[in-house]
Amino acid sequence: MIRDKRQQPWMISPGCFLFNLKHGGDTLTGKDSRIKNNLVSSFVYQVVLISLSFLIPRLYLENFGSEVNGVLSTIKQIFTYMCLLEAGVGLATTQALYKRIGEKDYKSANEVLSATHSYYIRTGIVYLALVLVIAVVYAYVIPTSIDNNVVFLIIILTALPALFSYFVQAKYRILMEVDGRKYVINNAETILQLASNAGKILVLLLTDSLILIQLVYCIMYIAQLAYLYFYAKRRYKWIDLNAKPDFEAISQKNSVLVHQLSGMVFNNTDIILISVLCDFKAVSIYAIYNIFFSQVQNFITSIVSSFTFALGQLFHTDRERFNKLFNAYETVYIMATFIIYTLMAVFLLPLIQIYTSGINDAEYTNVFLLLLFVIMNLIANGKLPVNSIIEYSGEFEKTRSHAVWEMVINITASVVAIIYWGICGAILGTIAALIYRCIVTIHYSNKKVLKRSSVSTYRLWIINGAVFALVMAIFFVDAFSNMSFFKLLLNGIIHSIWIAGLYVLANFVFNKSAFKTIFELCRGKKKQ
Predict the structure, then answer these.
(1) Same domain, 217 and 354
(2) pTM to 2 decimals?
(3) Contact 402, 437 (CB under 8 A)
(4) What pLDDT, on a 0 to 100 scale, did the predictor assign at position 93?
(5) Residue 129 in contact with residue 261, Cβ under 8 Å?
(6) CA 175, CA 101: separation in Å to the nearest integer?
């Protein structure tokens, strides 16, 4: 790689980037260190989270049955929707802080944080009122197999950590992520998961109290939020929330909220619609499949978020370099995403059969459902690079209509499809909406923001889609059905190697320029 005196190369690792930038004459070695810490902590956190996330639902199924598991999953989704109250402000603040933190303009950053603090206080008050309404309605109006008072207390305990976050901690968390200190959050989350899940398991072994289980998590979560609050106060001594609030800097919060609402509809509407149009056992089936896919999605998002702060800052400081490196990033990301979900399509069904063995009150083996989950997540995660362009550029208002139409298509198509095809119909509706959103996002990000043709992005989708179709023709989703765990593991290792190699070969043949950049960056890093 040819380097001038202004630039240091980035280092590429499998599926992600480590950045070592040089800007304005100062080598940002601290940034490189933060990215490495973010990646390591993200990996550790996700390994812990994935391991524990499979254990607790299994214990719920064994101790309480599929219906109770479905009820608890529905309550969880309701509170995920409640996060919409702050979604617009959070992402708008993130976008506003990228440039200010990158340029160390702390005075302006304080003005943004002061405005954010003001909105969060108001949000907390609204959140508290809504929680009380939902607790009463869901506990005493909607019939469930759980005692009414138990449901009421579970909802209240579920709400308390978010309430604490709105009033005290949320703005500091945003600042830490923009500043590249996601590793602090990841480490705190890892400890939270280990401690809270150990407490839950202990409660399940000693008693069957759902209230105690939720109380353990509530206490641990608030303790974690308190730690992050005091860390931020100690780290960012320049923070002054009494600064004059710059409401204009986060004026796009309403447009951002529309985008976040669209994402929330994608992630959470299915379970709520299934609970209304089907039953809670169907919700439990969907939730079990979703555990596997949501954990993989969280893993991908966590790794990518380890360096997006650097991408966001670079977008505003060196567009030419950003464009070159984004091409390599997009290639690696889409290829890695297809590899992951292809392997899930081939090997996940027997894992689900092993996971749900002995649970006979619902049918958890569904070949078509698994294939639809794979396609849905492929599209949703594959469009993340072009979607991030809109976030970096702050083009929320101009693309608001895209999010609105995605929601309309998603809800309308899902309701109709669920009536005819049950659980699978919910995902078919979501896929229809995702295809629309993916197309318009690819067009807008490439044409309007990056000022380039969309052909390069579509080429990546076609290349990787062709490999996916080939692998599915060889191994359909039930090829290893009912296989023992050790035989499955052996087959997984053997076939994963050539499947991943096939993807790398196809992408290398049809996109050599991106791989050339990747090789140059790797060589440049080794020379340092």
Answers:
(1) no
(2) 0.65
(3) yes
(4) 79
(5) no
(6) 9
